[in-house]
Design goal:
alpha/beta
């Protein structure tokens, strides 16, 4: 008996899935609203019908949920807990395939015409609840957006939904996946390094403090040979003012390619518990550094500026070329 009931419920679920009250090929709601506001009576009637269709579709989804629950529950009672759950889940997965059966689609169309008047009366009863839910979602559930650019255009044409800072954060998060490490890194010309052979005397320490940075790549001869990291907080309790950089540095150095995605860099920071990566190119030449702070700024779309920051954008500083790099008297760009 339960197996027969299960088959009936599954068949009813297939019919409900095949029901369609909303015409996806009809003129858009935006255009109907625009024409209706201009006094087009036909557009006003079509808009009213479309609103009812939206409510009927919402009601259909409610019935789909109810019958899906009945199918799984009946299967559990008929076959036991775990076999019933598996059988019920399988039936729910197979049910959408029934929509492709022509006879079932024909039956669904006839049923739609039959139940339409009663469905309208039912929406009159639950319509206020459905409309409240739809208004809360801004009817965004029926909007079709096919690209990030289209989504941002939709948001920009909806003033008042997001304030300026929220809009900036949203834009930054949407663009985050497409950004590379090389887009946000501090270029090599702006890196402050410490040489492995230096002695950490008062003058060197004073110069390091003045930069406002807390971490410094340690190089051996040139920037392409980074051999460690010097942490300013580790230098507070120096036992000797003549201690060398080599003795005070940490030997762990983490590298990342400039063509890696920022999402990869963020995962790298989280896994390694580091705050600074040395950025290299395809030939493992040092081209810059990237910090966890840089990645977070790219993610939220705002600069994290504190009292130690001397510049808002070190890339902009590098573009001004304050060190006069490669500016020989007879220099010529080709």
């Amino acid at each position: 008996m339960l197996i027969v009931l299960l088959g009936i419920l599954w068949g009813v679920l297939g019919v409900v899935l095949a029901l369609r009250f909303r015409d996806d090929h009809a003129i858009s709601q935006f255009e109907l609203t625009r024409l209706s506001n201009q006094g087009d009576k036909q557009a006003r009637e079509l808009l009213a019908r479309q609103h009812r269709a939206v409510e009927l579709e919402s009601l259909r989804y409610i019935f789909i949920t109810i019958f899906s629950t009945f199918v799984v529950t009946t299967a559990v009672f008929a076959f036991g807990v775990w076999p019933g759950v598996l059988i019920g889940a399988s039936l729910l997965l197979i049910a959408p395939i029934l929509i492709r059966v022509k006879a079932l689609r024909t039956l669904a169309d006839k049923l739609r015409d039959l139940v339409y008047p009663y469905a309208l009366k039912l929406t009159d009863l639950v319509g206020p609840i459905l409309r409240a839910l739809r208004e809360r979602d801004g009817e965004a559930g029926f909007a079709r957006v096919y690209s990030q650019a289209e989504l941002m255009d939709l948001i920009h044409r909806s003033p008042g939904v997001l304030n300026a800072s929220e809009l900036k954060r949203l834009e930054a998060s949407l663009k985050f996946e497409a950004k590379m490490v090389g887009d946000i890194m501090t270029p090599k010309s702006q890196i402050v390094t410490a040489d492995v052979h230096d002695t950490l005397g008062p003058l060197v320490l004073d110069d390091l403090h003045k930069t406002g940075h807390s971490r410094f790549p340690v190089i051996d001869g040139n920037d392409d040979h980074v051999v460690g990291m010097l942490y300013l907080k580790e230098l507070v309790d120096l036992k000797s003012e003549h201690q060398t950089v080599r003795a005070a540095m940490k030997k762990n150095v983490h590298y990342i390619r400039e063509d890696q995605a920022l999402e990869h860099a963020l995962h790298g920071f989280l896994r390694s518990h580091q705050h600074l990566f040395v950025v290299v190119n395809e030939y493992r030449e040092t081209v810059g550094v990237v910090s966890l702070e840089d990645v977070i700024e790219a993610l939220i779309g705002s600069k994290i500026v504190d009292e130690f920051d001397r510049f808002d954008d070190l890339r902009a500083v590098a573009e001004r070329n304050p060190h006069k790099n490669n500016q020989a008297a007879q220099a010529r760009d080709v």
